[in-house]
Structure formats: structure tokens, C-alpha cells
Design a protein that fits this description.
- This protein is α/β, with parallel strands linked by helices.
- The chain is 53% helix and 6% strand.
- The protein has a 4-stranded parallel sheet.
- Strand 2, helix 4 and strand 3 form a beta-alpha-beta unit.
- The protein is globular.
- Belongs to the NAD synthetase family.
- It is an enzyme of class 6 (ligase).
- Catalyzes the ATP-dependent amidation of deamido-NAD to form NAD. Uses ammonia as a nitrogen source.
Length: 275
């Protein structure tokens, strides 16, 4: 492991590779306890999470559901709830995947909020968008979608005195692959420190269907490039990223892309600048 690999892995809190199912089970229990402790410390009883149909939100959602079910039993209080929120932009092209994820999560409540009218309304008020190329406008509005989804989740959570869950993990964090103040905004991030393969392993151990566990990751924010895989955007695979974070040797080109991307996106992981 290079010094830079070790430095980045430490900064992101990367956990050791799983060596057995017992390791996976222990990590599941630890993260459920973290969710419960966070709720209790906040004196809140409701968790809210947007569900896309991918493995990250499916895993975080199932952990949240198990956490509130245990709290209901332990506290003898039925007001502990998990709310799964579908946040399509018009009709999501992989809606079947999202429904499969909801079936696996088995949330206490499932809501659907179409963000398209809000995004279109805002876009209609921003004259600067008219001067952009089609591709640039699509990219900008992709970030607007991510931020609108988080706004919707916080609106639901605020109305119920609840907390918003984020799905960021180490393999996304190192690449800065989240929208600043969009899907990067949350009250708790129970997948933090995991690499992508570990998220998949946890999902599988929790009983997620193979279609969810193996779904090709995509942010799916751009209309002109619907469903573009994360790995296409990264220029490296998640296997490469996982190996880098867990201190394994990687190709020089992979090392360079990950380190350069990490440095370029540091502002996303930092608090706002102050004087």
C-alpha cells in the first residue's frame, strides 16, 4: 500500500475486508446499532430515505427498516417508523428495479414524489440556462434533480420531526461521486467506510434479490445520457476503486485517476470555506 492509499483510506474510514459471513453479520449489527443510537440521541423516531432501485439505497433502506423494527420492540413504542420515498423525474426508466428494491426493503411507509414539476419550474425561472449548450444544461439540471430530491426528503422528514439517511460510502466518497448539497446532504450515512463490494455483500446477506445486488450503478441524472454507468463516468471500475481503498496493488493509470479525482473533489467532502 502506498502512503497516499493509506492516507485516503484513513480519511474515509475504510473498514477491513470481510473474511467471513460472521464479519458481514457483525458489520450489519454495528450499523443497525449506529442508526438506532443516532435516532435516540436526536430524540427522533422517523427515518426518511430516497429509494432509487440501486444497491446502495436498498441496503441503507433495509438496515433502517430493521433498526426501527428493533426499536419498536425494545422501546415498546410503535411510533418508530421508516419512510421510503420514491423520487422519479417523470417516469423512471428502471422503475421495475425500484419496485423490486421496495419489495426487499419492506418499509413501514412508501411515498412517491415526482420531482419533475419542481425542476421544470425552477429551470423556467433561471435565464442563464438558456445560454448553455444542450449537454451543459442537461448536466446542470442533473445536479438540480439531485438537490430537489434531497429537498423533498428533508421536507418529508421535517414534517415528521425525522432524520434523512444518506447512502454515501467510501467508493463513492473517494471519487466525489455525489452532488454537493444534493445526495451528499443527510443527517446520517450508515454505509460510510464501506467499499462497493462490501455494500453488495451486506445486501446479499440481508436477502436482497440478485437483480438489486448486481444492478449496474448509475446516478441517472442526465436526460441525454439516461442510465449511464458510474464506472463509465469514473474511468475506472468499482473493483479498481475497492482494491485501491483496501490497499491492494492497482495499475498506475487506475492509481492516477483515483488520486487526481480525490484531490479535485476535496471541496465536496469539506465544510464550507470560512474567513
Amino acid at each position: 500500500m502506498s502512503n497516499r492509499q493509506a492516507e485516503i483510506a484513513t480519511a474515509l474510514g475504510v473498514i477491513a475486508p470481510f473474511t467471513s459471513d460472521a464479519d458481514v453479520d457483525a458489520e450489519i449489527a454495528r450499523r443497525i446499532a449506529f442508526i438506532q443510537d443516532t435516532l435516540l440521541a436526536a430524540r427522533s423516531k422517523v427515518l426518511v430515505l430516497g429509494i432509487s432501485g440501486g444497491v446502495d439505497s436498498s441496503t441503507a433502506g433495509r438496515l433502517a427498516q430493521l433498526a426501527v423494527e428493533q426499536l419498536r420492540s425494545q422501546q415498546q413504542d410503535d411510533s418508530y417508523r421508516f419512510v421510503a420515498v420514491r423520487l422519479p423525474h417523470n417516469v423512471q426508466h428502471d422503475e421495475a428495479d425500484a419496485q423490486a428494491a421496495l419489495g426487499f426493503i419492506a418499509a413501514d411507509e412508501a411515498l412517491t414524489i415526482d420531482i419533475a414539476p419542481a425542476v421544470s419550474g425552477l429551470a423556467g425561472q433561471v435565464g442563464e440556462l438558456g445560454g448553455l449548450t444542450s449537454a451543459r444544461r442537461d448536466f446542470v439540471l442533473g445536479n438540480t434533480k439531485a438537490r430537489m430530491r434531497m429537498l423533498a426528503q428533508y421536507t418529508v422528514a421535517n414534517a415528521r420531526d425525522g432524520l434523512v439517511i444518506g447512502t454515501d460510502h467510501a467508493a463513492e466518497a473517494v471519487m466525489g461521486f455525489f452532488t454537493k448539497f444534493g445526495d451528499g446532504a443527510c443527517d446520517l450515512a450508515p454505509l460510510s467506510g464501506l467499499v462497493k463490494g462490501q455494500v453488495r455483500r451486506i445486501a446479499e446477506r440481508l436477502g436482497a434479490p440478485a437483480s438489486v445486488v448486481g444492478k449496474v450503478p448509475t446516478a441517472d441524472l442526465e436526460d441525454e445520457r439516461p442510465g449511464i454507468p458510474d464506472e463509465h463516468v469514473h474511468g475506472v471500475t468499482y473493483d479498481d476503486i475497492d482494491a485501491f481503498l483496501q490497499g491492494q496493488p492497482v495499475e498506475e493509470s487506475v492509481y492516477r485517476i483515483i488520486v487526481q479525482t480525490y484531490d479535485k473533489t476535496q471541496h465536496k467532502r469539506d465544510l464550507p470555506l470560512v474567513p
